[in-house]
Write a structure and sequence with these properties.
alpha/beta
């Protein structure tokens, strides 16, 4: 890729500011954990795996700022930093997975001194980023087999390199199919209200010279009904034990339309997105964001002042609409209640 989503750079976390794309490719340099938290909360970095990587690096930054020499005091302050980062966004489980991994790393370093714990936390954060990029490559490889030559693929939101540490999940599948020599085209839902499809996915695909067509969210059913879509591939922010999947708002109707039109609907996500502690989608917390994201576009009002607004950022796609879930450990179908648990044992 010709850009970096998020990386550790000499004691700072550097990330591309996704709010300014596609008009400006600007980078943010975070030198403290609070800045990383703000970047996650304010959507400068977004996408479940990328949020996890950023949070892990935020923990490592926080560790470097703690003055305590006592391990107990150090860990107490570190866990408060972890709590602050965990409170930034509620739906994407990768955030909590990465923070818990960093906590375990810190506890494993007890007895060797605070300086050692700081160092292993930095190493672990960098390792999480490296692993994520490799995992996405494997997801792409596994999913590419499901994409027929000549396919036109519909995707929703952005599950590309911008949403991960590199390559992407849903776009990883698309990239791998394209790199294998398959002739494919991609229909990109614009994805209101943040327009991640229009601003980010279209930008990524054009950088890779993958043929892309932008449509509004409400046009998906039209093109499906005309036989112009071969399959749908999206990412995920959290997958429940029964396969119900939380993803960007608007994903659920795409899945319903795909079923109505006999089109496969695939979800691509790393194992870290599985949350087997929740039995089904009804237990997944759904973030509601500020009304201004809907009533304003780039500061310009598009709705009447004072109108009531609901702005859930995610919806739940029931597992019955999902043709397969693509992970780095393989592709699963059918009874997700058993197959997802078995997948974790591989």
């Amino acid at each position: 890729m010709s850009f970096t989503t998020v990386k550790w750079d000499d004691g700072a976390v550097v990330m591309i500011d996704q709010r300014t794309l596609p008009s400006e490719e600007r980078y943010i340099v975070c030198t403290g954990y609070a800045e990383v938290a703000d970047a996650i909360r304010n959507m400068a970095v977004r996408g479940a795996p990328a949020i996890g990587v950023a949070a892990a690096m935020g923990v490592a930054l926080g560790a470097s700022s703690i003055a305590a020499n006592s391990e107990d005091l150090f860990l107490r302050e570190l866990f408060l930093i972890c709590d602050l980062l965990a409170a930034t966004r509620p739906t994407a489980v990768n955030l909590f997975w990465a923070i818990e991994r960093m906590k375990k790393t810190a506890l494993a370093g007890r007895g060797d001194g605070v300086a050692h714990i700081r160092e292993i936390l930095k190493e672990e954060a960098i390792r999480i980023a490296i692993e994520d990029a490799a995992i996405c490559r494997k997801i792409g490889e596994n999913g590419a087999e499901l994409i027929p030559d000549g396919a036109t693929i519909l995707t929703h939101c952005n599950a590309g390199a911008l949403a991960t540490a590199g390559y992407g999940t849903a776009l990883g599948v698309i990239r791998a199919a394209f790199e294998s020599g398959k002739k494919i085209e991609v229909f990109v839902d614009e994805t209101r209200p943040w327009l991640q499809g229009a601003r980010l996915t279209a930008w990524e695909l054009m950088k890779d010279n993958i043929p892309a067509t932008l449509i509004t969210d409400s046009m998906a059913g039209f093109f499906m009904s005309r036989g112009e879509i071969s399959c749908c591939v999206t990412g995920a922010d959290r997958i429940a034990a029964n396969g119900d999947t939380a993803n960007k708002i608007g994903t659920y109707p795409v899945a319903v339309l795909a079923r109505e039109n006999g089109i496969p609907f695939y979800v691509a996500a790393p194992i870290s997105t599985l949350d087997l502690s929740v039995s089904d989608g009804s237990e997944i917390p759904i973030e509601e964001r500020p009304p201004e994201e809907i009533t304003l576009i780039k500061g310009n009002r598009i709705a009447p002042e004072g109108v009531r607004v609901r702005n859930p950022s995610f919806d739940i796609t029931p597992s019955r609409y999902i043709s397969a879930i693509i992970t780095e450990k393989g592709v699963v179908r059918g009874d997700y209640s058993s197959s997802l648990g078995e997948l974790l044992q591989r």
